[in-house]
Structures are given as C-alpha cells and as structure tokens.
Design goal:
229 residues, alpha+beta, Glutathione S-transferase Yfyf (Class Pi), Chain A, domain 2, 4-stranded mixed β-sheet, globular, binds glutathione
Length: 229
C-alpha cells in the first residue's frame, strides 16, 4: 500500500447520488481513501472551510488538491495523467446527463400537481429514452465493452430513478423505456458489481432509508438547484 494513497479523504453523505459517484470512482480505480460521513446541509465553519465555501457533498481531498464537484472527481480519478482530455462525444454525454437527464429526474420527482406531473413525466421519459438508445449495442456498458466515466456518472441516478419513481410516481422504467432490454443489461451489469454494492453503505434497509429520505422531495420540497439545468 502506497503511503500517498492513504491521504485521500472522501467527504460524503450516504444518500447523495453525487457523492456516490465519487465513492464509486475511488473503488473502481482502486484508490485507498478515508470515508467521512458529513451532513452537507449543516453549514458549520469547518465544513465550509473543507468544502472551499461550496458546502456540498462530495468533497475529495488529496494532498494540496481539493475537488468539490462530482464530475471533476470522476475525471480526476479516471484519468490522472491526461486530466480532462475526453472526446467531444463523451463530454456531450456527460453534459446531457448533468444538464438534462438529472434535473429532469428531480423535476419529475418533485412534481405534485397533475399538470406538472404530466409535463415532467413526458420530458423525463424522452431524456431517459435518449440515454437508453445511445447505449452501445456491442457490450454491456454505455460505450460497449469498455466500462467508463459515463457509466459512473449516471448509475447512482439510475438506481434512484428505479427505486424512487416507482415508489412515489408509479413510474416503471421497464414500461417507459422502448429499448428496455438494452437499458436493463446496462443497469444490471453495474448494480450487480461488487463496487456498486459496497456504496450501498452496508445498511440492511438501504432502499427503505433512501425512500424515506426522498419523501420530502416527492412532496415538492428538498434541494432546489438540482432541478435546474
Ligand atoms: N455539483 C455538485 C452537486 C452536489 C450536491 O448537490 N450535493 C448535495 C447532496 S446530494 C448537497 O451537498 N447539498 C447541500 C446543499 O445544497 O446545501 C456535484 O456534482 O458534486
């Protein structure tokens, strides 16, 4: 075990899909790190100092480097040598996931009146189908045979989509995604992997706890900015 690797600290919140991205990335890239559970909503002086004034989970610290954004963290551990040197197609997909698909998921989860529910559901279904259609046919991962940063960027949200939209909005992914076989193959390949299971925190009732945590979102509350593109 290299000494330098022990210096990585992951400040995470167990329920947070953005933090789960960072956690997955550390596991997939086999880095040694210290997991530190925090409440990002409790803006103590110490937390604001650690998070460089952002106050959001995740935060990763390695030596002099502090990273406060989950996509930056994915890139940092994926590609330490070349940094953010991704193809335009990958950048476009990551941007689609972050700016279209994820905010649309939160808008649907938070919708309460009939009109909003109808609108957000339809919009979300279009985005989810776009993602599904673009999963490469030549393998189980988004890019085909190669596992990539795109898989990591979306899987924590895909998990919550299945769990929370089913529970709170009676939305069944299998019925809404036209090419469901491909989506399912992608989804299961990742959620059944050991590294994914490890990020389910070890809580016996993880799914139930997540459902409880997101109840306030399903009633229109919770964090605001996640719905914005
Ligand atoms: N852009 C950030 C967003 C992370 C984020 O919104 N995290 C939530 C928890 S899931 C948070 O810390 N919220 C605290 C707050 O908004 O005060 C990332 O991708 O890392």
């Amino acid at each position: 075990m290299k000494k330098t690797e022990e210096k990585i600290k992951l400040y995470s919140a167990w329920y947070c899909p953005f933090a789960q991205r960072a956690w997955l990335s550390l596991l997939v890239n086999k880095r040694d790190f210290k997991y530190i559970e925090i409440d990002p909503y409790n803006k103590t002086e110490e937390w604001m100092r650690i998070s460089k004034g952002f106050g959001t989970a995740p935060v990763v610290i390695e030596d002099e480097t502090t990273l406060v954004d989950s996509l930056d963290i994915l890139k940092y551990f994926d590609n330490p040598k070349t940094g953010t040197n991704y193809s335009p197609e990958i950048e476009e997909t990551l941007s689609f996931i972050n700016k279209d698909l994820i905010p649309s998921f939160y808008r649907f989860l938070k919708a309460t009146n009939d009109e909003d529910l109808k609108k957000t559901r339809a919009e979300f279904t279009i985005f989810l189908n776009k993602f599904s259609n673009e999963i490469n046919e030549k393998g189980q991962y988004y890019l085909g045979q190669n596992f990539s940063i795109v898989d990591l960027a979306f899987i924590p949200f895909a998990y919550r989509i299945d769990l929370l939209l089913r529970h709170y909005k009676e939305y069944i992914v299998a019925k809404e995604v036209k090419n469901f076989a491909r989506y399912q193959q992608w989804y299961e390949a990742i959620i059944k992997a050991e590294f994914f299971k490890e990020t389910k925190t070890g809580m016996d009732n993880y799914d139930e706890e997540l459902i409880n945590f997101y109840k306030v979102y399903s009633e229109g509350g919770g964090q605001e900015d996640v719905t914005k593109s």
